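Re: the multi-chain job from yesterday

Posting the exact lines I submitted so nobody has to dig through the queue logs.
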Amino acid sequence: MAGSRGRGRSQFSFSVDALGFGRGDSLPSSAHTPSPLFPPMQFRPVPLHTGEEVDYMLALKQELRASSKNLPFHIKAARTKTDVAHYSDKYQNGETKNNCIEWSPDWSRMPKELCIKVRKPRKTGAKPQLTRKPKVAAGKEEVLQKLETLEKREEEQHSEEEEDEEKKKQNEEEPDADEDYDEEDLEDETDYIMSYFDNGEDFGADSDDNMDEAVY
Amino acid sequence: MTAQEVRLCGLLLQEHFGNVVEKVGTHLIRSGVLTLRALAHETKLPLDLVKKSLCVLVQHGMCTFGAGRRGPAGPVEYRINCERVFHMLRYPRYIYTAKSLYGDTGELIVEEILQRGQMTMSSTVKTVADRLTHNMPEGQSMDYSEVVSAFSQLVETHFLQRCPLASAGSSSSGAVDTPLPVATQPTEPESHPDCYKLPYINLTGQGKRRRSSEDGEADQCAAKKCGDDRIYWQVNFQRFHLHFRDQAIISAVSCKLDQSSSEIVRTMLRMSEVTTPAHAAFTQALSANEIFRALLSSYNIARPILDQYLSLLVDDPMEFVGKTGDSGGGMYVVNLHRALANLARATLESVVQERFGSRSARIFRLLLRKRHLEQKQVEDFAMIPAKEAKDMLYKLLSENLVQLQEIPKTPDYAPSRTFYLYTVNQLPTARLLLQHSYKTVGNLMERRLYETKENKRLLEKSQRIEAILASLQATGAEAAQLTEVEEMITVPERQQLESLRHHINKLDSSENQVDETIFLLKSYINSTQASL
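And the result, structure tokens for all chains:
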């Protein structure tokens, strides 16, 4: 190794022709930028297969993709409750919930720890609507009844109050709201609910001497 | 699990089962084995969602579970079977094969079982009969017995098999009452003696045409008592893969030689379907007499012609058929592993040719044949000028298709005293191309998702308009109304939709085609591993 240093000094360890450029030429220019993301292709790709078989499999693939979105195996996370309550929440009760599974697997073939409540398929949505109608009808009847009793107010004031209280206990929430509503706006027989109206009497009542805190 | 494989698994799970399952699945693939609690903690998903995802994955056979490291008393551990996830790419091919072999009934049976993972025989029969009835004209309906016969045919030819028994219950509950060996879930389905035995079920009736107001609940209640509770069937992917392999060999023979020789090879493969085990390197030896008897008369091949064809096949350099003896007119086998290796080699060569040109392909083939060559020898043998040959060699080297082997003359590896030999190893190159293919499919899927997302608004609009049109037509509207609705999509929008459809079709078709390459390369790699 050390002995060959003196001899053959001008010889390179590989033949210069193999490098691709001559002795006096400059080195090939170095790249200044990264290579392009989509380099131009030297050879165009071969066209795809065509034929009846290919078309059929293509149609199958697209159909499978579309139908798998509707199967119960396609799991969507339940929507987290937002701060705003939407009007449409009342009508969208078919949404998925996290703690029910939409299909019924054979639990004997799965580990017990995966067991989760199976969501029973909802029978037609006619039921909740049907139960609402009697409530609304009952509310109307009770309002009519109340008006009749109010007409007789002068004569039977105490007993009316008792009846009203009994009805309040028997009634559900909607007629209660109606009653409160009736009381509120019947005070001055105007269209405006009195508690919403602020006639500005309280403005400026507080003393302005101490201005430590800003008034918004 | 390479990065590309994980990425592809994630995309496939997302396409079929949604984002939640994709998150759970990819995390489980990356971590290897996990318990339920660890998985929920690491993915930061609610426990219920993780449970649901695991149920879906177990149902489809993509996730296996078993007693963990702490033994049967500890928590259950889950792992994902990546190969099974990749099979999802090939579903259209399985369904089409079933259709070509067993008609529409077979096609629907396989499609139902693929989409649901595992099903009992009775529920499959009912669902398929209903679907067929739905497509039939009014008044006709599909009888259950026809569907049952198609199902039995599929089972007899081993395309469907029973799901392996699950000994899952005992591994997680504390009480082990029976002294069963608490086997982890992946018992081979073939080890079950009744793997292909049809249950006796009492199932008569016809498919029902589903009206929109009827509920499927009544059917579900009646379905319970059919006599085949707990016997679930799944698709036997290995059998389909053997079928695809045979198809590939037959088409290669017909391309290389001619139609009649491919028919002879088809007959040989058909005869040895049931007798050859799955990973065998050769089929069973068949005598020429047997082959002649088994040949269909429609091929019209006389006995001496058959002998000539057989000797031609044996002499062919592709070595599809080999001669192992002389009794019975000559004993012939089909060399399965060698055929796969040759098909893989042809794939590699064609890839190099299409990417780098025919001269680079010539260099590649030369190196495959001659194993190790120096640069000077490459230039001479390939008859390509030195500068260009050098350029091509270096390009192939930079793409890792060609490797450099150093053979030192002296122990100090001095460059002037070392031989540098170029070589191509078929197996590592096949693995490399397989990874490239996975990356390609992943790119195709991502591009398709991107295209769909870009034009989401337009797609939704067109769907809405189609729905409006359909409802108008159902209620019998006039032509003027229909044209008015159709005009709601302007002409440039229509063009945009058309080009979008064209792109998506192209991308989908490409995925199917790349999957064929994946299948071939994977079969070749598996065959080399089996023989080791």
